[in-house]
Amino acid sequence: MVAQNPLFSGRWTWKKFGATVLDDIWPEVIVFTLFATIIVLVSENTSANLGVSNQLLTVLGLVLGLVISFRTSSAYERYQDGRKMWTNITIASKNLAQMIWIHVPVDRPVPAGSTEKPMTPLEVMLEKKTMVNLVQAYSVAVKHLLRGEQGVYYEDLYPLTIFPTSLRKRIFWKNGRRRKASGRKTRRSRTNGRHMRTTTEKTMVASSSSSDTGGRGPMPGGPYHRRTRMDTFDPETVLPEIGSDQPLKPARNPPDLTIYDYLPFLRLFRWIWRVVTLQKLNSGETKKKRRKAYAEIVESHIPLEITLVLSNYSAWLMKKGLLQPAIATAVTNTLLVFQDSVSNLERICNTPLPFAYQAHLRMSLWLYLLLLPFQIYLAYGYITIPATAFASFLLLGFLEIGQEIENPFNYDLNDLDLDYFCLSIQRDLHEITAHTTADPSEFLFTRWNQPLAPSDRRNAAELTKDKDKEYRAADGSGESGMGSLRRTLVVGWKEVDLLTRQR
């Protein structure tokens, strides 16, 4: 599969240069190119010859090439490990949902002499669907955890995790006092100050816009703007609408790009300005420092809490005798896969390459590129300038790629699409819960089922019409019984083996 090119997919914006490393390395490439230009012009226009022997170039180039290759391969290995762990979460989510939906019985007979109120089929179905929704919430919670977004107050997570007591009773700290979460309803709002309409308001706006534009819907880009899928894409509208005691943050909230992202060398001036400003504040500070209050919200490890609720549910099922031993073991193993996957994802996210290694590698590469024009000038002359530019672009690009994909869980275009993984799990789990657990006899012996094709094209209803309930060959030989059925299967195997081979 060829990776999609983000530069030419969708609407083109300057932000899409973030998919390359050009926006990160172009200042360094320009610096080394200008330095090479100075070396060449001085050597050509003055009596000084700055060229030196290139023996050191071969040794340093080989060492740097191996080190940069190791750096890039180790970063890509972390990228691949992150994808494997998300595959494990996807498989475990679907397996656990299937076991809950199919293997947990709907009929709940009450033991004789028990005062427990029997559960109706509707109550049992609601119980199982609720737990499947919690399985869906697990992947969303892991997504926010890896992105450093703590808590449950997100538009795609809060509606799925509000009902368990351990996730609902939050403790808040404000002004040094402890208070519990209230039940007042608030509108969902963005963290950057932009107000997000409720579903009712969205419907009213869409209706009014459709009536004004001939049923085509709102026109965000003007009267002749053609609506696209991205204009109306809002997957959070399918989630439950539940009032929150805190403003809900958006499901996807990438950081805003600033001029420092396009001009990285300006970060040095920002750092200098902060140091100078801080010194002025410290020198003229006369106000008494006040003790800071605790954080307003005390958050916990949400994926861990979800697995605790699911483990408690499986323990309750086993205590009631509602799960077969094999299924109970499979449920426990699936929950262990959840724990193992999130632990490995946190290991990838929280274990960066040591700073000493990164700093030494970058300084070594800078020294190599600074010495490069001196060593190749005698052989290339004016070609030293483009040669240095190409070498700096190549080596700095590979070094930046390693740093780019080292933590693949953020919002960069080269990172893993965690939102896609979560939405894919959501679709699959809803498809599982839409499955009706019908008795196989209801669909096996029908006229649409031809189990013995291609050797016998009769359907299952015709095959079972015999009054003696025996199989009779379709070739008219009159043979019957299991021996005839096995010969028919052998003929079918030979025919399939012959017709499905290209050569």
From TrEMBL:
The keyword Acetylation does not apply. Residues 178-223, 457-483 are annotated as: Disordered. It is a multi-pass membrane protein. Its main location: membrane. GO terms for molecular function: chloride channel activity. It holds the Pfam family Bestrophin_2. It is found in: Cell membrane. The chain crosses the membrane at residues 25-43, 55-76, 365-383. Residues 178-197 have a biased composition (Basic residues). The keyword Calcium does not apply. One of its GO terms (cellular component) is plasma membrane. Residues 457-473 have a biased composition (Basic and acidic residues). Keywords: Cell membrane, Ion transport, Membrane, Transmembrane, Transmembrane helix, Transport. Residues 201-213 have a biased composition (Polar residues). This is Uncharacterized protein. It comes from Agrocybe chaxingu.
